[in-house]
Write a structure and sequence with these properties.
Elements lengths: L1 H36 L5 H7 L18 E8 L6 H9 L5 E4 L8 H9 L3 E4 L12 H19 L5 E2 L8 H9 L3 E3 L3 E2 L8 H11 L4 E5 L6 H14 L3 E2 L2 H5 L9 E2 L1
Parallel strand pairs: 1-2, 1-7, 1-8, 2-3, 4-5, 5-9, 6-7
Helix pairs in contact: 3-8, 5-6, 7-8
Length: about 260
Amino acid sequence: MKILKILKRRTRLLILLTLAVVVAVTVTVGMVIRANTMDTRSPRAERDRAAPGAEIPSGRVDCRKARCIALTFDGNPGEPTDRLMDLLKEYKAPSTFFLEGRRIHEFPDVVRRIAEDGHEIGDHTWTHAVLTDVSDARIRDELRRTARAIAGITGSEPTLMRPPQGRTDDRVSRISEELGMAQVLWTVTAKDYETDDSALITERVLAGAGRDGIVLLHPLHKGTVPAMPAILKALDEQGYTFVTVSQLLAPGEAEPGTIYK
């Protein structure tokens, strides 16, 4: 009898633990689905919102006419190597770098070079925190600290941010709007975080590339920078014009809080 009671207690405990896991997984999946089904605005839609006849500043690309694509790079500023920066310069490929803040002051020369080479710098939070999982105060701190660190080196605070893992919700959108930042997701990812195979990274980017596309890459992964010559060459040969995210939206302007994809 004693053994049966112990077994029953263990069975009940196992059932409770299983239910807890199921609930936790369900909540997590629900949050991811919610983030992926929120209203987003395309670059073309933002351009169409601009005043009729609005002009692009002289010397800038007009993506209403050109076949534009935006390369974006996420990570800390120690990761954009000189090799990557040299390649982007060679192919005249202004890009957008979403930088984590916690190591910015270790690499001021890299941050300055990103800006001086004509690239755009966005906010990727201070510690790469998943913003949907933290408090309002933490969201503000993650974004503000990084924005101030970037401004301390470049003189300009970012107007674009990318939520880590692409995880956002109404709360993140509201706080981003308060801070004057638009959210930028992506249309194609190489998933370079799961492979060091440069050929596969190249294949994934080219397979997903399209006009007005926003490409997500991570320079810290071993296969990414070695894949860049093939990616840049192929996209150039296919007639794409490389632009920053803000250039992709012009003559429209990124609206704070809005999610672009």
